[in-house]
């Protein structure tokens, strides 16, 4: 068997911090950074700070944004999808004939394709996560079985309070990934985070996404499983997900999931994680303990962001902690 390839090189997260009490500078910055036209407010004074902290990596962006005390923004539709979690203050959104109000603790869509609307903000601080359009399209295609079906959102608000909490948990996890340079620099971790955010957004917010169809289920034969296994082994070092694996096997994502459940009693992505876990084991065995390389760095290289879960999964298979393997000579 040929030696497997190594994962791609690290990503450098882009971090931005900005703060000002100058009204002109604040509104210029808002207009430059976002697809928004801000209307000046007489209530803005030079003791009011507008601040932003942003990190972007792998197409994902996380922003903590404190707006002017009173601000009216005209938001233009963007190619990517952004979702807001309100940390303080209130927001009123005028969208077509709809008028929706949000307050601290709630979640809402921020911008999306064709999402033109006006918002009025009062002492608002908001956490925003942006998901690339490509990730959203792939997730929608995997869920519906049709990657050409148009996607439109029916409301700015989540489908339920439980759905909103689901988004908060997911976004909190992704922010921990982006806050740490080790995990935010791993293309495999970032790829998983993109797919997780996209799937969660489609599950949380009502849309025109049609119900999924079990397309090509009968086409998922043992030969399909073997093709999928070969593809996963050959591409475990790259940023691949369910859609890419299914496309390589010429079946729908649902069909591939069905086949793996029957033949392996696990999903294609769990199978991929097992292969990557084996690659971590190999790399730990081959790493010089004196080189300064850490278990965390090796795990992140292969797409494992949660060190506790990674260590537990590693111990369950190899019977020792990964740190023990690293120091075996």
Automatic annotation (TrEMBL):
Keywords: DNA-binding, Transcription, Transcription regulation
InterPro entries: AraC_XylS_family_regulators (IPR050204), Homeodomain-like_sf (IPR009057), HTH_AraC (IPR018060)
Organism (species): Actinomadura fibrosa
Stretches assigned to the HTH araC/xylS-type domain: 226-328
Protein name, UniProt field: Helix-turn-helix domain-containing protein
Pfam families according to UniProt: HTH_18
Keyword ATP-binding: no
